[in-house]
Write a structure and sequence with these properties.
single chain; 98 residues; mainly alpha; Multidrug-efflux Transporter Regulator, Chain: A, Domain 2; three-stranded antiparallel β-sheet; 5 helices; globular
């Protein structure tokens, strides 16, 4: 893996951890964080669909130790942006891009 990409991913992880620590220290209610299984159940889509959205940059997320995490705010952003598109439409777009 390219060193630049590794450093960028490390910085993203660090920023996410710092934000979580800030929330905990400030006494804010902890935001819900979803993993792939949570998203599969919540959105009623397959693991592959979520992976495709992630790979295409459609689904905002953070990656920590190889596992994808989506905060409640990221999920809200995704749903607001793509709420007018049905899941089937997103899947069709995935097929066209292959």
């Amino acid at each position: 893996m390219d060193l630049y990409i590794e450093i960028k991913e490390l910085k993203q992880r660090q920023e996410m951890i710092i934000a979580m620590l800030d929330d905990l220290m400030s006494g804010k209610a902890q935001e819900k964080i979803y993993d792939t299984v949570d998203l599969m159940k919540l959105l009623n889509v397959s693991k592959r669909t979520i992976a495709s959205w992630k790979d295409q940059g459609i689904l905002p997320h953070s990656q920590i130790r190889g596992k994808m995490w989506v905060t409640g705010e990221q999920l809200k952003e995704f749903l607001e942006k793509y709420s007018s598109m049905k899941t089937s439409t997103l899947k069709k777009q995935e097929r066209r891009q292959k």
